[in-house]
Amino acid sequence: MSTAAGSQPPTEGAPQTDADHGRARRGPVPMIVYGLVAALVVGWALTASVRSAHSGQDLRANLTLIAPAGAGGGWDTFTRELQAAMRAQKVVNNAQVVNIPGAGGTIGLGKYSTMDGQADTLLTSGTVMVGAIALNDSPVTLEDVRPIARISEEYDVIVVPADSPYQSIDDLIADWTQDPKAFPWTGGSAGGLDHLIVADLALKNDIGPDEVTYIPKSGGAEAIQVLTSGGARAAVSGYNEFADQIEAGRMRGLAIVSPEPVEGIDMPTLVDQGYDVAMTNWRGLLAPAGITDEQFAELEQIVSETVQTPEWKDAMERNKWADVFLVGPELEDFLVEDTAQIEALVEELGL
After folding, report:
1. Domain boundary at 273, 294, 316, which?
2. Residue 192 maps to which CATH number?
3. What is the pLDDT of residue 11?
4. pLDDT band at 102 (very low <50, low <70, confident <90, very high)
5. pLDDT for 269-320, tens place per residue?
6. How confident is the model at residue 3 (pLDDT cuts 50, 70, 90)?
7. Percent of the chain at pLDDT above 90?
8. Quick check: 128 and 346 in contact, CB under 8 A?
9. ∠ CA 318-300-81 to the nearest 5 degrees?
């Protein structure tokens, strides 16, 4: 599968970053790369944040939430909504958010794996990170941290500009199959959910992975820029990232990538239109390795209280997120199954 370069050259050695958007390349990434890139991205802000929060005593006094992506995307929105809910109900007195963008969240995960025992720092994770780990053969995986909870789930949508000739997904597929390489798509990180959806849709329409042109971006905001500038013909990302554009009439939604129609979203599913592609984008939180069982239990309680607040329930409704809260052994089983499915898809698609 080919990935078209964005407006800036890549700055990393192996995986493609959300900030630089070069071509994704497979292969393990030395840990030194994670450390150097994360340090450049985060710099003094993260160091000061973690040092001020890390007292090792009261986790409800200070908590740092790391969003492993740039500002404005799905992970950032999710993390800041959690922060707002924690603050509003005093679940945590001082909750702060730090962004570490890059490589579908694996830059943030790599940096996080060095924070052994720092119980007052949590990392947002989800489907995109699982896909990026598989795509980049990341030396750091979810087995190197302690997952706390799966919290929410949302679905991607396929959109085109309002002046696009494509009135339906059938129109788009018919044109795409004529000359796949000349039909650029855009969406989130290489190896992330958006990318996998395009790849799976190609597979279901007899388009080889190496024929797909995909321009990876850090999220919906940058994908919109590529789409409106004519750099891509269609985009895939979370519904919430395109909702304003669709409601304003600047974008046309052709399909929602969900198993069934979603209440409150007036858009047919790919499945209902004859294309057997349905994937979910879950998000949750991770704790670092090396913390005590007591600290882990306290963090799980903090998260459980946060998702019960009226502020979080309002965020779920506003963002059209589904409640899929899961902790404990059931979460561990889910992650094993989800990782296996995504790894199998990445292998099948030749990514």
Report:
1. 273
2. 3.40.190.10
3. 28
4. confident
5. 999 999 999 999 999 999 999 999 999 999 999 999 999 999 999 999 999 8
6. low
7. 69
8. no
9. 25
User: Same structural domain for residues 148 and 9?
Assistant: yes
State the pairing for strand pair 251-256/156-161.
antiparallel
What's the confidence (pLDDT) of residue 4?
53
Instruction: State the residue for tokens 């040092």.
Output: 51
Cβ atoms 60, 91 nearer than 8 A: yes
Last residue of some domain: 248, 273, 298? Answer: 273
pLDDT digit string (tens) for 63-74? 999 999 888 888
Looking at the 3D structure of the chain, how many domains does it have? 2
Same domain, 127 and 166: no
- 322 and 264 co-located in one domain: no
Question: How many helices and strands (H and E) does the chain possess?
Answer: 11, 12
SS3 string, the chain, reads CEECCCCCCCCCCCCCCCCCCCCCCCCCCCHHHHHHHHHHHHHHHHHHHHHHHCCCCCCCCEEEEEECCCCCCHHHHHHHHHHHHHHHCCCCCEEEEEECCCHHHHHHHHHHCCCCCCCCEEEEEEHHHHHHHHHCCCCCCHHHCEEEEEEEEECEEEEEECCCCCCCHHHHHHHHCCCHHHCEEEECCCCCHHHHHHHHHHHHCCCCHHHCEEEECCCHHHHHHHHHCCCCCEEEEEHHHHHHHHHCCCEEEEEECCCCCCCCCCCCECHHHCCCCCCCEEEEEEECCCCCHHHHHHHHHHHHHHCCCHHHHHHHHHCCCEEEEECHHHHHHHHHHHHHHHHHHHHHHCC
Burial of 298 (0-12, 13-18, 19+ CB in 10 A): middle
pTM above 0.85, yes or no: no
The number of C-alpha atoms within 13 Å of 9 and in the hemisphere containing its C-beta is: 2
Q: What mean pLDDT do residues 127-139 have? A: 92
pLDDT for the residue numbered 191? 77
> Sorting pLDDT into bands at 50, 70 and 90, what band is 104?
confident
